[in-house]
Sequence to fold (494 residues):
Amino acid sequence: MQIVIATMSHETNTFSPVVTDLARFSSGQASPPSGVEAESRYQGTASCVGGFLRAAEEIGASVSLPIVAAAPPSGPVEDIAFEYICNAIVAAAAEGPDAMLLDLHGAMVTRSFEDGEGELLRRIRVVAPELPIAVALDMHANLYPAMVAHASVIAGYQTYPHIDMDETAYKSGRGLLQALASEMEPVMSWGNLPMLPHVMRQGTDDFPNKALQQRVREMESQGALMVSLFTGFPHADITNAGLSVVVVTDGDQLLADQFRDELLKMAFIYDPEPLEVSVARAVELADQAGPVLLLDHYDNTASGGTMDTTEVLREIIQQGLEDVAVFGFYDPLVVEQLVSAGIGAEVSILLGAKLPMPALTEQSRPLQLTGKVKLISDGQFPATVAMSRGLTMNMGKTVVFSTGHVDIVIISRHIEPFDPGCFKSLGIDPGSRRYLMLKSRIHYRVGFMPIVKHVVECAGRGVGTSDYSELTFRHVRRPIYPLDGINSLAGLEN
Fold:
């Protein structure tokens, strides 16, 4: 059996000014990896491609990887990049494989298409109308009809932070391959609601998503082959942004519909508190038992944030917090300035706020700081946590800059701080600090929850804002929760 495995993965924040070109999909190389190079890189890793490879190996299938193109969240994907990736995948489908296993995100928006994944699948069906296709999607997928219509089976992550990427891909790939080898006939049911579940209520170790995902797993033990509740990605101003459910059963459409309807009956609510209040509360919580984590979740790069807004750090400094380690600030210009100065040099810098955010009325301001260059690094370290174990993380050229009370990691590539290695590789022991500041939302929980004593969520500034009133939505369905004051499921269904 010949199987094609490919990746086209991007979570698009339509409010983000960060450019998403082909280079962003290429991990610092000339182009995205493919072929033997990609297989070697992802074999045995906690990734979707790793899960697909495992499913293929179990049946002794031959595999080809025409492209593995994954980019960190940012603004709409440039058409040139999208066409390059699509062409590689569609060409592989046209060669007549027995099956195709696709690692997609589900929330890709391009300059030309609201539904990037649906457009890819549509093009595949033009050249391969009967090709069995298994799709693995992120929990934050914003589903469109084309995705479901053109896929054979769909499975989505059941954890956030996403520590089941490989298992999700394995499940969807194995399910498809089992169907090809038996009389099983997968059928899918899907639906969505006009609501934007708040990201800060989507963590699967918290209310309400913990209980919802538990029910998903119960349904998979009660007759469903695959059940996926997609919380959606709310920082995408597109028609179908919001909550979706996909249920796959073995020929039982009634059961699939029943489970779908049950899971659609839910809501996610979040109310941010003022920044100065949050930071003051962090001071009150500080003790010697472990660090207090200040979460700068408005500027999370994994939600498309610029990773260079300064409001939370400014408040930390103004309130006089000491023994703070900060990750991180994306500011390649300052990195080059500090590298030129050298280790031990005392330097004044203008940190952050380099990337304008046209989607926001209020912009961030650069932060004037004076301090010393403590360390210079190439920014690479091995991931050791469940989310990306086995992969090499790349922060780009990196500097640790110290003001005396605050150590700031300044990086040249956007990267989500979910692995404590982002500190440890730079000589910083995060568990010994009084305070940590992370530009993260939920993924930090993978590696940092065993370390920290308290978590304080800080309302800073950024295109990943948790206050949706700061954004102007022009394309989502209206009315929609929470933008239009809808506060009941009955209101959503009318």
